[in-house]
Amino acid sequence: MDFISLIKPMDKIEEEQEVIILGGGPAGLTAGIYAGRNLWKTLIIEKAIVGGNTALTEKIDNYPGFPEGITGEELVKRMEIQAKKFGSKILEADVLNFRIDGIWKIIETSNGIYRAPTLIIATGTRPRKLEVPGEEEFTGKGVSYCAVCDGAFFTGKRVAVIGGGDSAVEEAVYLTRFSEEVILIHRRDTLRAEKITQQKAFSNPKIKFLWSHIVKAIEGDKKVERLILQDLKTNEIKQLPIDGVFIYVGLIPNTEIFKDILNLDKDGFIITNEKMHTSVPGIYAAGDVRGKVLRQIVTAVADGAIAGIEASKFLEDIKYNKEV
Asked: Domains in the chain: how many in total?
């Protein structure tokens, strides 16, 4: 008899696991590799595409071991194969609800109810919106948050990119493959992206920079036709004719269902210690969803490895009736 069956079960629970991982990006897949290698029954639940945002990254050239670079799709496909090799199963489903009953962490999904003594949260983030008039109206009609997804629709067109971090600058460079002109609009007068990324943008003749400006509105008839901008130094309001706008102004963590259960920081990211422990025993967080200073694939992978090992230790303590 498996030790986990000795714990008093709940009614109406369809399937038991030993480790449940929410999110199939690099952090979640790596946690699955480490939990699987320790022979725990592991389920990874992913609501969209395995790999998350990384799968949509056209080229990654700062992940160790790939000096020539690698596509995000290829990198996460290798991670997925490796997680499955060590026994982790992947379920495509939306998470509808979460609750705790004693030692059990119970996940209700669109494809069944699952429970386990340990839970690793690797749900990542989603793009922060500008929250300006026209943004919702024109989403999918010229407003986008993913250059890899939508860049080809703007072949020969003039587009704007909003933001000054790594994502904004990298996507601006990518868009020059298709667009005739890319205007990068930033509220500051310097970029925050890595220096090597900045150099690529500054040396690209298709990219123009509009410093110290913010978007006040997005306008058009049936699609995006212009941006209404404010010059932060003069307060002057301007119109910028444009065919599309790509927005990269920050991230929102996917933590809403945990807000009354776990300790979150002021921005909604999960607070953990260096072992990925959250405020609830047996629950761990890994990757971009965690409060941290650097959000990169390599740090997500490191978080996932630690979380997988710590979940294994928690299960071992249960197995040998140690205090947890």
From this structure: 2
Do both 220 and 161 map to the same domain? Answer: yes
Q: Which residues span the domain enclosing 173?
A: 143-247
Return the residue matching tokens 């199963």.
89
**Three-state SS at 223:** coil
Q: Domain for residue 277, yes or no?
A: yes
Residue ranges in the chain whose pLDDT is less than 70:
1-13, 322-324
Q: What pLDDT shows up at residue 61?
A: 87
Residue 176 within any structural domain of the chain: yes
What CA–CA distance (Å, rounded) separates 322 from 55?
Answer: 40
Task: Give the whole-angstrom CA distance, residue 217 versus residue 224.
Answer: 11
Catalytic residue (one of 149, 189, 265, 267): 149
Q: Which of 202, 220, 247 corresponds to the end of one domain?
A: 247
Report the greatest alpha carbon distance in the chain: 73
- Let me know if 265 is a catalytic residue: no
In the annotation, is 149 catalytic? yes
Q: What is the DSSP string of 244-278?
A: EEEE-S-EEES-GGGTTTS-B-TTSPBP--TT-B-
Choosing from 150, 166, 243, 303, the catalytic residue is: 150
| Residue 135 located in a structural domain | no
Active site residue 146: yes
pTM summary value: 0.87
Chain segment 282-293, per-residue pLDDT in tens: 999 999 999 998
The predicted pLDDT at position 322 comes to 63
Question: What are the structure tokens assigned to 103, written together?
Answer: 């030692």
Angle between helices 26-37 and 297-319 (to 10 degrees): 30
